[in-house]
Amino acid sequence: MLKASAKYFMAFGSQNSGNILWGLPLQHGWQFRTGRLADPTNGTSCGHRNLCISVRSWWSCMNYYLAIIPFLGAVEAGLFGEVKYEVEMLPPEDRRDDFCYSVADCRSHIPKLIDEWKAYFEYLQSAEQKTMNSAKSSSFVLDDALHHMWKAHVASIAYALPKFQDSLKYLAVPEANFGEDWANGVDFIAATHFSTDLHTTNHFQAFLPQRMLVEGDVLPSISGFSSQQNRVLVSLRALNRANRLTGGLLLKLWQKAMSTEAARKIGRKLIEDLASSPSFDPWEYTVI
């Protein structure tokens, strides 16, 4: 997908670095590197010594909807041109009914989700077509592309989160809490149209936990974690709790606040400072 969509992002960085799809493979890599795609039950060696991705992993199951579903949406949108043969994924041995494996299969089970990812790739193609049919140098608007991409991204999480709730029981309580906190946090990040290009994603992933959380890891001072990593975890935990206590009202208010590009710029700066600034002061952003 990165290679096929590279031509749309030539103006945003050399060597395809400005492509906002980088967030998907980089998140996948972070999850694999930190052991989050391995079998948490240790019933198999899947993910521990090889490139296997365990269907028993909550992170793996969630990530299917942020890897395969975008790919199939791209196929249906025609991103790869005319595909001579039907593309079909091989099903896992377990939990076969929790996934779909081809465009036709997914369209019959999750049509709205496929439509969201298809819409993103169709936007890229339509912007290119408008450019070709006009005197403009480009009809591509990065903020619009981010809108479509994030809309599909949060739709994938919203669909998968309740489906794989039972898989959280295999994780240590701190890790399970982090998983849910991260899923909730993505909704807030998405509302700012946060860029997921190569450099931005790579930079901010450093502030995520670089190992699985285990019993005995207690916020706000988990041993071996940097102050920024601890702060990000504390912030995600507080954000999830506050959103739950308000019945989702906090997210709705945040999304309303992020309705203009000027506000989204402030929102992105807030997220950046929260993660990386040693002197972060949230009161500076009460203007939002």
Automatic annotation (TrEMBL):
Keywords: Glycoprotein, Secreted, Signal. One of its GO terms (cellular component) is extracellular space. It is found in: Secreted. Its main location: secreted. It comes from the Eukaryota. InterPro entries: Leg1 (IPR008499). Belongs to the LEG1 family. This is Chromosome 6 open reading frame 58. It comes from Chrysolophus pictus (Golden pheasant). The lineage of its organism: Eukaryota, Metazoa, Chordata, Craniata, Vertebrata.
